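Onboarding guide, step 5: your first structure request.
Type a short instruction followed by the sequence, for example:

Predict the 3D structure of this protein.
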Amino acid sequence: MTSGVLLQVAFFVALIVVIVIHEAAHFGVAKAFKIKVEEFFVGFGPRIWSTRRGETEYGIKWIPAGGYVKIAGMNPFQPPAEEDLPRTFGAKPIWQRALVIVAGPATHFVLAFIFFAVWLGAIGQPVPNSPIVNAVSPELGGVESPAAAVGLRVGDRIVAIGSLHDPTDAQLVAITRAHVGEPLDMTIERDGEGIPVTVTPVLATVAGQRVGRIGVLLGEARETSGVVGSVGGSVKLVGSAIAQTIGGLGRIFGPEGVGRLFKLLLTNAPRRTSDPASVVGIGRVVSQTAQSGSAWDILYIFALVNVFIGLLNLLPLPPFDGGHLAVLAVERLRGGKTIDMRKLVPISAAVAAFFILFTFAVIYLDIAKPINLAP
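The system replies with structure tokens like these:
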């Protein structure tokens, strides 16, 4: 099994763990309010194994697509036993029921915060300016490369070239190609010290073209944050991800997104990186990210995925958690008068059918027309 496949499998397993954490939050808050929880299972379908501890049955099922908890009184077609009525979901105050529901989606935002904070503190955000030297070519065209001649090393940071300070990698390439045979003053940062050098770009063949080069491969510089900076930066990233995801949900599941999906399914239109992706597609992106040398940026991707899952669960539509919260809000406005959940079953079925069909369509596209991050 290749490393790419292993990464995709690991990503899928991590998603299952995240969903189990989501369900565990529902379970824990329900137990805290003394609501009866009848089942806590990982997976769906036929049982593989189960055990009963107290009033709750715990177990594993064959279809590894997440997990669920069965809370007494939440299934409108399974009336609870009379002795359990005081401990059913519907018997508790609205605020307690709301906390039980919101606990699941909240875990995704907490996990996103943790992943963002670790990424900022341990890996760091890419800095677009003053790129790092990732490799130095000993020769160009059979002679010593300009970079090797002036002693550039892997890890050097190019902080100035000519009159330009803090250049981007694109600016460095443009200046190098525009000054073939002309000496260029360059300042590099090594071990915190600025070192001036002078390089003269030479012609070299790149992708079949003769262009100016000095003989280096460039990489992104990164800046890590301390504990305080990581916490503050993580809060900002979660907020930014929430704002972007809200807009993305409207685009993906609205008329534009559905129309785009049909176009991809029925025509030869190519996939774009902005198109929605399933677990299969995201797993492939994770694999590509790791193989490009940015393996720990998977933490960033996983944080974004958690924000998406959290907001998706908060959509005010049954059977999502947000649908249950919407029902509780209506009950509150009606002075506590309960809603017959059986009347909402057709809506739940329609919403579930839409999202299931949408998901399978995107999975098909991720197999037939995979999104490729490579340039």
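Each response can be followed by summary notes, for example: The CA atoms of residues 6 and 287 lie 9 Å apart.
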